[in-house]
Amino acid sequence: MGTDSITLSELSATRRRSERRFFVWLAVSIAILVFVGFSRTYYLQSLFKTPGLSMFLHVHGAVMTGWIALFAVQTFLIASHRTRIHRGLGSFGAGYAVLVVVMGCTATVLAARREVRAHSEFVSSILTVLALELTQMLLFASLVALGIWLRNRVAYHKRFMLLATFCILPNPIVRLFVWAGFGSNIVILSVWALLVTAVVLLDSMRNRKLHPAFGFGATITVAFLYLAYYGSLTPVWQRFAATTVG
Description:
Blueprint: H1 2-43, H2 45-48, H3 55-79, H4 83-117, H5 123-149, H6 154-166, H7 170-180, H8 185-207, H9 212-232, H10 235-245
Helix pairs in contact: 1-3, 1-7, 3-4, 4-5, 5-6, 5-9, 5-10, 6-9, 7-8, 8-9
């Protein structure tokens, strides 16, 4: 009986360490993806000599970078057993999430307005992007709220916060496709959806079961973005969005 207890205890500790390493690996991978995706237009702009950004876009970039940094710090704090500091930063993170939503929505609306008022040939595409990015922000806010609500249920909390962060990852993926010179909105969306699916599958394989937070959260997140994409192609959305932002 004693030996069995020790074995189960060791197995539980091993699983916790594995879970921490998994989320640390994801946090690092997300940070790398964001840095590479925005390196030419933001982080290493001077090296690539790309057009300058307005003050608003600099602030927008700083706010979004701050969320990625906060997510990574919170993940490392848990991995290093600094739970008290993690919880202390949680209140700040909740307020910061509101700032992310405000800046994200404002940036995409202003970009759409600029194209509509200029009667750009890309108006239809930018209105599709508007629908996608507003949906991303809605999902981000909802998942963060769920994560905060379930903060005492650790397994749910961390997965909802991860999915929330994934909601802002289509943007750096877009930049990578722009560099490569190909890719449409549906292709980029599908690549992002495959990344979400891959993370869910890896987590399920590690735990030998699908966690409900991923089962529910990932399904809703991917489904809503596809619905937003196809809905944005309709004349109803195109007219409404053009009239609203114009």
